[in-house]
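Here is one chain, start to finish.
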Amino acid sequence: MSSAISFSPTSAPLAPGRRTLLPGAVTFPIVALGGSAGSLPAFEQFLRGLPPRCGLAIVVVMHLPPTQPSQLPEILREFTTLTVVPAADGVRLRPDHVYVAPPGFEVTLQHGAFLLAPAIQLAARRLPIDAFLQSLAKDARERAVAIIFSGLGSDGAVGVKVVMESFGMVMVQEPATAEYDAMPYAAIATGFADYVLAPAEMAQHLLQYVRMPLAERISRQTYEGGTASGHAMQKICALILGQTGHDFSHYKRNTVLRRVERRMHAHHIRQIDDYVRYLQQHPLEVQLLFKELLIGVTKFFRDPDAFVALRERLLPLLREKAPDAAVRVWAPGCSTGEEAYTLAILLLECFDEIGGDKHLHLQIFATDINSTGIDVARAGLYPMNIEADMTPERLQRFFVKTSIGYQIRKEVRDVVVFALHDLNKDAPFTRLDLLCCRNLLIYLSAELQKNLLPVFHYALHPTALLFLGPSENLPGLQDLFLPLDVKWKISRRMEVSPALARLVNFPFSMTPQLAGAPHLTNPMLQSSPRRDGGPFADLIQRHLLRTYAPPAVVINVKGEILFVNGRTGKYLEPAPGLSGMNLFEMAREDLGFELSAAVHKAIQQQEDVKIERVRVRNEGGYQLLTLSVRLLTEPETLAGLLLVAFEDQPTPRRVRSGKGQSEADLTRDAAVAALDKELRFTKHRLQTTIEEMDSSLEELKSTNEELQSANEELQSTNEEAMTNK
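Its structure:
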């Protein structure tokens, strides 16, 4: 064996922030080999299986003594014809090279180049593999590959989750072939390993994986209805819904597509229709896809500065609490519980700071749709590597060290109630002082996000706090919440008008309805359909062709125009200002009263309405028309909508020119009669509106009481279950 080669990076490590690297797109796979004790023989078997021109950049990260020279680069040169060099600060990665992370440094990637910084943590608490894998996932995205080999501890378990979340690939050494199986078992326990193989088999599977062209992706447009692949995606969502009870059609399209692509890639399936058949034939694959869609990358005190900012905002709120009051917190999407327990630790520390004379009671509701994650959270047992995220003081106070990790103390577990809960369909927890929903909404569609924000507003006490993830920029937030910290997305609930509060659109079918209006159960009717057509437009067009030839519009009970047929410019025109497509706002002046009355009558009496000889002014004078409002009852997809049609009638010349009225018609009495008619109509509409508002408020009040009762029952049941456990 040749003489030892010491690590001496070609450029001195720079402190973070002193150098800005130009972005460089990574166009080749980057493979990270993570290992500890006993991994050298596995490295040898893996590297011997790679050809000289494999097109891969390989980075070896091992637990090495920080103060001793390492012979690892020289040793690896004996196993491979690839170029083996130490990783150096600022050096860009190149294919067909093996880079070895030097001991005593924290190695990360930025824009395809190494960043080296002196390690500041104690050697026993350093997790170099996790640190590198997290930066690799962020930098290389779907071109990242993580391989975990033999070793002690659980370093790499957090990193493989991040690689998976970024659509990379994960391999793990078969524990039976590892000299020390702790690291492989920890990586396998995450459930995110694509391949569990002996080292000698890894190179073949890796090359087969990376040689599948990344360009062979499902077009993002295929998720839309009307295409074969679009229907395939709908079938996939239906299969998941049928087997798990959870609807992923409201998740962001790209998120679902990328997860599906990744599973197809792992099974070497190129056509999405083939993958649908594979799902139908292998129910276990449906569960695996469901689990992958639920990937929750979480840890204690993720973004520590965010929790420092939250603490500053919480202290004034807690000081204003009455003695013996309850502090209620909800953490939806809690995954395996780290963030819920982080909130518990933070709030208990805040209680200490404001003094114990208040005797505040803490209640944290942590929810998720993943039953496996909830079970882990309830146990409160976490691996040793949480030492990297916690101060020694917090570990000593809030955890009990066991032979296999750290367990949350019982007094902390007792203040957190974990429960299965689906934001898309289940009632929210209410009377909250803090709602923490970090890095969940970014995976949901814009429509569902828009529906959830009013629900969050409804669930919070006045002046309570909403805590979101740093990447969540949500439309409409400024109407309901006052930003307190823009960087860390901490906001305070704002008071809104009762009219706006009534419009809360609960995802679980609690939308207030107009009095006498049909209940709209189809989600398509709750929001405007896509303007590019699709099945919705086809249904309307076929119905119009069978029934009507004149210009017409389809509206919902609020007057929002969902579809326009024919030329309606003679009857409707854009309203001034930032108005939407609302029939009552767009109706021409002479048509407004008759149109509003006809629509209202059709809704109230549940019957068709027709008004003859309605006059409307146009560029050439006046035109008589027949105004028809028809309540649609079939097909089922259109049930509850209204069809408003405008049919021109023969108009005498004197009427067209505006001379149809005699001088007698222009007398003072006629003007008074017209004004009286308008006044009676306005009074009638006002009275009806007041009755509808009162009815809706009563329904909302009743529903609110039912929700509070249900929440209290759920809390009681969970507390009993925890006590029994």
